[in-house]
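help with this.
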Amino acid sequence: MPVDVVTERTIQAPLEVVAGFAADPSNVARWYKKIASVEWLTPKPLQVGSRIAFVARFLGRTLRYTCEIVDFLANERLVMRTAEGPFPMETTYTWANVGDDATRMTLRNRGEPAGFSKLVAPLMVPAIRRANRNDLAQLASILEMR
């Protein structure tokens, strides 16, 4: 069962602020509830080819995976794919102005579960959707208070 979850949220902050914060892997543990730690495996700054290691908790399991940045256009989109890990996944962030000092951020996760993930795939879509909504809400709460 393929996974393809798209979640959007309007954040009351300028596009450059939202995109700059969200696209920096060093900030991920602040707004992704399930991410426990982040480690840069390649030198900063973020660019196509950058690799970042994550440790997360999802559906009661600890997941360790590495993502590679496959597309990055500052203030427009970021695409990363798992390069190593239990669940091949592509994550895309896009940002768009939606008025004075407001940004629509779209978060898309898609992939084809394998191994253990394949067994729990029917539970994954609603869990990912719920986690994404919560994570975007946390991101908004951080950035709207600035």
